[in-house]
């Protein structure tokens, strides 16, 4: 089971390592969660990118301006490495 999986729930705010809000959790899955972003494509963020979870916030270990460069636009293929 992924670390933080049981702490992440829909509606939580997702914050980049730079402190900027990225979006909100739309769906929680086995190895990642779908982040709903305003004016941008939703992304599937792996639990490995979560730095910590506090109250209603998920803090990532990736800055907000690097989210689109992580290859998270599509859900991972089950059993694939590196996601």
Derived from helix and strand composition plus strand pairing, the structural class reads: mainly beta
Distance between the termini: 14 Å
Total helical elements = 0
Instruction: Round the mean pLDDT to the nearest integer and report it.
Output: 91
Please provide a written account of the structure.
There is one protein chain. The protein has 83 residues and is mostly beta strands. It has a domain at 13-66. It is built from no helices and 6 strands. Strand 2 and strand 3 (32-36) form a beta hairpin.
Summarize the structure.
Helix content is 0%, strand content 35%. The protein has 83 residues and is mainly β. The chain has a domain of 54 residues.
Summarize this structure as a short list of keywords or feature phrases.
83 residues; mainly beta; 6 strands; globular
Map the helices and strands.
Elements: E1 13-15, E2 21-28, E3 32-36, E4 43-46, E5 50-54, E6 57-60
Parallel strand pairs: 1-6
Antiparallel strand pairs: 1-2, 2-3, 3-4, 5-6
